[in-house]
Amino acid sequence: MKSQARPATGRLLYAQSGGVTAVINATAAGVIQTARAHGIKVYAARNGILGALREDLIDTGKESAAAIETLRHTPGGAFGSCRYKLKSLEANRAEYERLIEVLRAHDIRWFLYNGGNDSADTALKISQLGKAMGYDIRCIGVPKTVDNDLAVTDCCPGFGSVAKYTAISTLEASLDVASMADTSTKVFILEVMGRHAGWIAAAAGLAGESADAPPHIILFPERVFDEAAFLAKVKATVERVGWCTVVASEGIRNAEGQFLAEAGTRDAFGHTQLGGVAPVLAALVKEKLGYKYHWALPDYLQRSARHAASKTDADQAYAVGKAAVEYALAGMNAVMPVITRTSDSPYRWKIEPASLDKIANREKKMPAGFLTRDGFGITAAARRYLSPLIQGEAPLPYGRDGLPKYGSLKNVAVKRKLAAFAP
Ligand code: F6P
């Protein structure tokens, strides 16, 4: 975390990585606006680290201040993202040499990688590579993930907004099923993201607090799926309340450790693609209990829902981008700006640097104290943690067509200086 003198010249390279979020572009705005205020030119890598390897760089200097400002409210990843894992230095030296060659050719002295725990690992490796290859480069990991599973930081930009969307959707769909239950649907099942950690599923719990309020059942990846206990609780809830809302994490597993919903494909990091647990549960409810059901899989809708974003989340996303540039220009290396909670109520937070080696490749699961004893709900401690993260609305400008006025950049390519390279 040592600070060194700032290089006399140089550009800053920013790249987005992994699954994008409703507010990752707010982080990009924080990066670009802060760098501009310091007179630093920013290049963006097209499609994350792949753009750096392919020398496919974007000159953000070609964008107007107004265009950069639109990033604050535009979902998706403005420069493209990727799932691509850099191997170890020993395993693929050519790739690292290529990276250094590209950075050197464009006089890039600061590299900001905006992603989750895999991306923190990539940023850490590049910082090590800089040292090993004698190239002066400062690397900063910038946090982002709807999964909220990064170590050290209290929460992850992107999570507060998916949490708000999930809590709102759970509440709204529950009002619907409650209206229909007498003669039609008895069970509604919502499937949410979160591969190995149940943070998003937990956020659904904010929809209601009393014993019979929805969601009546939350299924967490931290708990083994117990079919008999699940069905018993669905039945008891329908008999008592008249209907039942279930929120299931895509990552729930059976006692054998198998995901209930594997799509059968894997990404570059070896992660299993998930999705489809809701129909599996719905079929079970129908077969064993005979209830009519509906289920929903919001999938990308949940992580792109900027119209339901949390103001807290949008503010934090911007703040980590701004801090990342300040850390880089102060000469810090291999760190990440993390969010530290200083008070629950009133909610207060600040940004601090943390070493990437404490974050890379680690996953933060829900603490046991956040789950109720039966494993189907959240505790008061979880509510104290989650509630501030969904506070505030981050309104959008709407056009006459009734749609949000999202921004779109020109993404002008920087002239290549090197021979082509296929990663
Ligand atoms: O980035 C996290 C995440 O949104 C997970 O919750 C989800 O399982 C995964 O990404 C989906 O990844 P992809 O968009 O690459 O299929």
Automatic annotation (TrEMBL):
EC number: 2.7.1.90
Assigned keywords, A-Z: Cytoplasm, Glycolysis, Kinase, Magnesium, Metal-binding, Transferase
Top-rank lineage group of the source organism: Bacteria
Cofactors, names only: Mg(2+)
Residue ranges of domain Phosphofructokinase in the record: 13-297
Subcellular localization(s) per the UniProt record: Cytoplasm
Stated name of the protein: Pyrophosphate--fructose 6-phosphate 1-phosphotransferase
